[in-house]
Amino acid sequence: MPKRFRSLFLSDLHLGARACQPRAVLDFLKAHEADAIYLVGDILDIWHGGRVHWSSLHEAVMTELERRALNGTRVVYLAGNHDAALRQPGRARLPEAWEMREALVHRAGDGRSYLVLHGDQADSRLLRLHIMTRIGSRADALLRRLDDWFGRRLDRWARKGDDSPIRAVIRRFNGLLVMGGRFERRLMALAGAAGAHGVICGHSHKPAMREIDGLAYANCGDWVDSFTALVEDESGALRLIDWSTEAAARPDLAQGGAVAEAPAMARSLG
Predict the structure, then answer these.
(1) Which of 168, 214, 255, 262 is the most exposed place for a label (fewest CB within 10 A)?
(2) What is the pTM of this model?
Protein backbone atom coordinates (compact mmCIF):
# COMPACT_ATOMS: atom_id res chain seq x y z
CA MET A 1 0.00 0.00 0.00
CA PRO A 2 1.24 3.54 -0.70
CA LYS A 3 2.56 5.51 2.23
CA ARG A 4 0.31 8.43 3.09
CA PHE A 5 1.48 11.86 4.16
CA ARG A 6 -0.10 15.18 4.93
CA SER A 7 1.92 16.92 2.19
CA LEU A 8 4.41 16.11 -0.57
CA PHE A 9 6.81 18.70 -1.96
CA LEU A 10 8.53 17.96 -5.29
CA SER A 11 10.62 20.33 -7.37
CA ASP A 12 12.73 20.36 -10.50
CA LEU A 13 11.22 17.46 -12.43
CA HIS A 14 12.26 19.24 -15.66
CA LEU A 15 9.70 17.37 -17.76
CA GLY A 16 10.70 18.01 -21.36
CA ALA A 17 14.43 18.35 -20.75
CA ARG A 18 16.96 15.74 -21.88
CA ALA A 19 17.93 14.76 -18.33
CA CYS A 20 14.38 14.28 -17.03
CA GLN A 21 13.59 10.87 -15.52
CA PRO A 22 9.78 10.48 -15.61
CA ARG A 23 9.87 6.80 -14.61
CA ALA A 24 11.36 7.76 -11.25
CA VAL A 25 8.64 10.35 -10.69
CA LEU A 26 5.88 7.89 -11.58
CA ASP A 27 7.29 5.23 -9.26
CA PHE A 28 7.52 7.75 -6.44
CA LEU A 29 3.92 8.85 -6.94
CA LYS A 30 2.82 5.21 -7.06
CA ALA A 31 4.37 4.66 -3.63
CA HIS A 32 3.11 7.84 -1.93
CA GLU A 33 -0.19 9.62 -1.40
CA ALA A 34 -0.94 12.91 0.32
CA ASP A 35 -3.67 15.38 1.10
CA ALA A 36 -1.67 18.06 -0.73
CA ILE A 37 1.03 17.95 -3.39
CA TYR A 38 3.15 21.05 -3.91
CA LEU A 39 4.98 21.23 -7.25
CA VAL A 40 7.76 23.63 -6.29
CA GLY A 41 8.86 24.92 -9.68
CA ASP A 42 10.69 23.73 -12.80
CA ILE A 43 8.18 20.92 -13.19
CA LEU A 44 7.95 21.61 -16.92
CA ASP A 45 11.03 22.56 -18.93
CA ILE A 46 9.73 23.13 -22.46
CA TRP A 47 10.68 26.75 -23.16
CA HIS A 48 14.44 26.24 -23.19
CA GLY A 49 14.88 26.81 -26.94
CA GLY A 50 16.24 23.33 -27.66
CA ARG A 51 14.67 20.00 -28.48
CA VAL A 52 11.78 19.02 -26.23
CA HIS A 53 12.03 15.43 -24.99
CA TRP A 54 8.51 14.14 -24.39
CA SER A 55 7.15 10.61 -24.23
CA SER A 56 4.19 8.64 -22.94
CA LEU A 57 5.95 8.52 -19.55
CA HIS A 58 6.10 12.30 -19.37
CA GLU A 59 2.43 12.45 -20.29
CA ALA A 60 1.68 9.84 -17.62
CA VAL A 61 3.21 12.04 -14.91
CA MET A 62 0.91 14.91 -15.86
CA THR A 63 -2.08 12.57 -16.09
CA GLU A 64 -1.39 11.07 -12.67
CA LEU A 65 -1.14 14.47 -11.03
CA GLU A 66 -4.35 15.57 -12.72
CA ARG A 67 -6.07 12.37 -11.53
CA ARG A 68 -4.98 13.09 -7.96
CA ALA A 69 -6.43 16.59 -8.16
CA LEU A 70 -9.75 15.35 -9.55
CA ASN A 71 -9.93 12.82 -6.71
CA GLY A 72 -9.60 15.49 -4.04
CA THR A 73 -5.85 15.98 -3.58
CA ARG A 74 -4.85 19.61 -3.44
CA VAL A 75 -2.27 20.12 -6.22
CA VAL A 76 -0.45 23.47 -6.18
CA TYR A 77 1.91 24.49 -8.99
CA LEU A 78 4.50 27.14 -8.11
CA ALA A 79 6.36 28.15 -11.27
CA GLY A 80 10.16 28.40 -11.37
CA ASN A 81 12.66 29.90 -13.78
CA HIS A 82 12.44 27.03 -16.30
CA ASP A 83 8.65 27.26 -16.41
CA ALA A 84 8.43 31.00 -15.75
CA ALA A 85 6.03 31.40 -18.69
CA LEU A 86 3.35 29.88 -16.47
CA ARG A 87 3.51 32.99 -14.32
CA GLN A 88 1.77 34.77 -17.18
CA PRO A 89 -2.00 34.16 -17.06
CA GLY A 90 -3.27 32.16 -20.02
CA ARG A 91 0.21 31.29 -21.34
CA ALA A 92 -0.29 27.52 -20.99
CA ARG A 93 -3.23 25.22 -20.41
CA LEU A 94 -2.84 23.18 -17.24
CA PRO A 95 -5.53 21.15 -15.45
CA GLU A 96 -8.24 23.41 -14.03
CA ALA A 97 -8.17 21.45 -10.77
CA TRP A 98 -4.61 22.66 -10.07
CA GLU A 99 -3.83 25.86 -8.20
CA MET A 100 -1.30 28.19 -9.82
CA ARG A 101 0.72 30.30 -7.38
CA GLU A 102 3.92 32.34 -7.36
CA ALA A 103 4.48 31.63 -3.67
CA LEU A 104 2.40 30.75 -0.62
CA VAL A 105 2.64 30.16 3.12
CA HIS A 106 2.01 26.55 4.10
CA ARG A 107 0.84 25.85 7.63
CA ALA A 108 2.08 22.47 8.83
CA GLY A 109 0.27 20.10 11.13
CA ASP A 110 2.23 21.34 14.14
CA GLY A 111 1.22 24.94 13.52
CA ARG A 112 4.55 26.04 12.05
CA SER A 113 4.39 28.00 8.81
CA TYR A 114 6.68 27.78 5.79
CA LEU A 115 7.12 30.08 2.83
CA VAL A 116 6.93 27.83 -0.25
CA LEU A 117 8.43 29.06 -3.52
CA HIS A 118 10.78 27.79 -6.20
CA GLY A 119 13.75 29.86 -5.07
CA ASP A 120 14.78 31.71 -8.21
CA GLN A 121 13.28 34.77 -6.55
CA ALA A 122 16.47 34.87 -4.47
CA ASP A 123 18.82 34.82 -7.49
CA SER A 124 20.93 37.79 -8.42
CA ARG A 125 19.44 40.11 -11.01
CA LEU A 126 21.74 38.68 -13.70
CA LEU A 127 20.74 35.07 -13.07
CA ARG A 128 17.05 36.00 -13.16
CA LEU A 129 17.30 37.04 -16.82
CA HIS A 130 15.46 34.53 -19.03
CA ILE A 131 18.43 34.36 -21.41
CA MET A 132 20.55 33.02 -18.54
CA THR A 133 18.03 30.22 -17.96
CA ARG A 134 18.15 29.32 -21.65
CA ILE A 135 21.95 29.33 -21.67
CA GLY A 136 21.99 27.13 -18.58
CA SER A 137 19.50 24.68 -20.12
CA ARG A 138 21.47 24.34 -23.34
CA ALA A 139 24.77 23.95 -21.49
CA ASP A 140 23.29 21.26 -19.25
CA ALA A 141 21.89 19.37 -22.24
CA LEU A 142 25.23 19.53 -24.06
CA LEU A 143 27.19 18.30 -21.05
CA ARG A 144 24.78 15.40 -20.48
CA ARG A 145 24.94 14.46 -24.15
CA LEU A 146 28.74 14.36 -23.89
CA ASP A 147 28.48 12.32 -20.69
CA ASP A 148 26.22 9.79 -22.44
CA TRP A 149 28.60 9.58 -25.42
CA PHE A 150 31.68 8.97 -23.27
CA GLY A 151 29.73 6.65 -20.98
CA ARG A 152 29.00 4.30 -23.86
CA ARG A 153 32.70 4.10 -24.61
CA LEU A 154 34.19 4.02 -21.14
CA ASP A 155 32.78 1.22 -19.01
CA ARG A 156 33.83 2.79 -15.72
CA TRP A 157 31.55 5.76 -16.37
CA ALA A 158 28.64 3.50 -17.15
CA ARG A 159 28.92 1.35 -14.01
CA LYS A 160 26.29 2.10 -11.40
CA GLY A 161 27.60 4.29 -8.62
CA ASP A 162 30.58 5.58 -10.61
CA ASP A 163 30.88 9.28 -11.28
CA SER A 164 32.31 11.09 -14.29
CA PRO A 165 34.22 14.36 -14.67
CA ILE A 166 31.35 15.76 -16.72
CA ARG A 167 28.77 15.04 -14.02
CA ALA A 168 31.12 16.71 -11.55
CA VAL A 169 31.11 19.80 -13.79
CA ILE A 170 27.30 19.74 -13.85
CA ARG A 171 27.21 19.67 -10.05
CA ARG A 172 29.62 22.59 -9.85
CA PHE A 173 27.50 24.46 -12.39
CA ASN A 174 24.38 23.95 -10.27
CA GLY A 175 26.37 24.90 -7.19
CA LEU A 176 26.90 28.38 -8.61
CA LEU A 177 23.26 29.07 -7.79
CA VAL A 178 23.88 29.09 -4.05
CA MET A 179 26.58 31.77 -4.43
CA GLY A 180 28.42 30.86 -1.26
CA GLY A 181 25.27 30.79 0.83
CA ARG A 182 23.82 34.12 -0.34
CA PHE A 183 20.98 32.28 -2.10
CA GLU A 184 19.94 30.64 1.15
CA ARG A 185 20.29 33.80 3.22
CA ARG A 186 18.10 35.73 0.79
CA LEU A 187 15.45 33.03 1.09
CA MET A 188 15.66 33.27 4.87
CA ALA A 189 15.06 37.00 4.60
CA LEU A 190 11.96 36.39 2.46
CA ALA A 191 10.67 33.85 4.98
CA GLY A 192 11.25 36.26 7.84
CA ALA A 193 9.44 39.05 5.98
CA ALA A 194 6.48 36.69 5.49
CA GLY A 195 6.40 35.91 9.23
CA ALA A 196 7.13 32.23 8.52
CA HIS A 197 9.16 29.75 10.54
CA GLY A 198 11.16 28.70 7.49
CA VAL A 199 11.24 28.19 3.74
CA ILE A 200 10.58 25.23 1.43
CA CYS A 201 12.15 25.58 -2.00
CA GLY A 202 13.95 23.88 -4.88
CA HIS A 203 15.99 25.48 -7.68
CA SER A 204 19.55 24.67 -6.58
CA HIS A 205 19.21 20.86 -7.06
CA LYS A 206 20.79 20.47 -3.62
CA PRO A 207 18.48 18.65 -1.18
CA ALA A 208 18.88 19.95 2.35
CA MET A 209 17.23 20.35 5.72
CA ARG A 210 18.91 22.58 8.29
CA GLU A 211 18.50 25.69 10.40
CA ILE A 212 19.81 29.04 9.18
CA ASP A 213 19.58 32.15 11.36
CA GLY A 214 16.97 30.47 13.54
CA LEU A 215 14.70 29.54 10.62
CA ALA A 216 14.20 26.19 8.88
CA TYR A 217 15.67 25.77 5.40
CA ALA A 218 14.26 22.83 3.43
CA ASN A 219 15.24 22.21 -0.19
CA CYS A 220 13.34 19.47 -2.04
CA GLY A 221 16.27 18.60 -4.31
CA ASP A 222 15.48 17.47 -7.85
CA TRP A 223 14.50 14.54 -10.10
CA VAL A 224 17.44 14.78 -12.47
CA ASP A 225 20.33 13.90 -10.18
CA SER A 226 19.34 13.59 -6.52
CA PHE A 227 15.83 12.02 -6.77
CA THR A 228 14.64 13.47 -3.48
CA ALA A 229 11.37 14.90 -2.17
CA LEU A 230 10.24 16.57 1.00
CA VAL A 231 7.34 15.02 2.93
CA GLU A 232 5.26 16.21 5.87
CA ASP A 233 3.65 13.63 8.16
CA GLU A 234 0.43 14.09 10.10
CA SER A 235 2.28 15.56 13.08
CA GLY A 236 3.72 18.32 10.88
CA ALA A 237 7.28 16.96 10.90
CA LEU A 238 9.25 17.41 7.67
CA ARG A 239 11.83 14.99 6.28
CA LEU A 240 13.64 14.30 3.05
CA ILE A 241 13.10 11.06 1.13
CA ASP A 242 15.97 9.76 -0.99
CA TRP A 243 14.02 7.85 -3.61
CA SER A 244 17.08 6.39 -5.32
CA THR A 245 17.74 4.49 -2.09
CA GLU A 246 14.17 3.59 -1.17
CA ALA A 247 13.27 2.42 -4.68
CA ALA A 248 16.02 -0.21 -4.58
CA ALA A 249 14.10 -1.93 -1.79
CA ARG A 250 10.80 -1.94 -3.69
CA PRO A 251 10.52 -5.02 -5.97
CA ASP A 252 6.91 -4.08 -6.77
CA LEU A 253 7.97 -1.06 -8.82
CA ALA A 254 8.00 -1.01 -12.61
CA GLN A 255 10.78 -3.03 -14.19
CA GLY A 256 13.63 -1.17 -15.75
CA GLY A 257 14.79 0.66 -12.64
CA ALA A 258 13.37 3.56 -10.71
CA VAL A 259 15.51 6.03 -12.60
CA ALA A 260 15.42 4.46 -16.06
CA GLU A 261 15.69 6.65 -19.15
CA ALA A 262 12.42 7.57 -20.83
CA PRO A 263 11.75 6.18 -24.33
CA ALA A 264 13.25 8.25 -27.13
CA MET A 265 9.90 9.51 -28.34
CA ALA A 266 9.47 13.27 -28.34
CA ARG A 267 7.03 15.85 -29.54
CA SER A 268 7.22 19.61 -29.46
CA LEU A 269 5.21 21.44 -26.83
CA GLY A 270 6.87 24.83 -27.05
Answers:
(1) 255
(2) 0.78
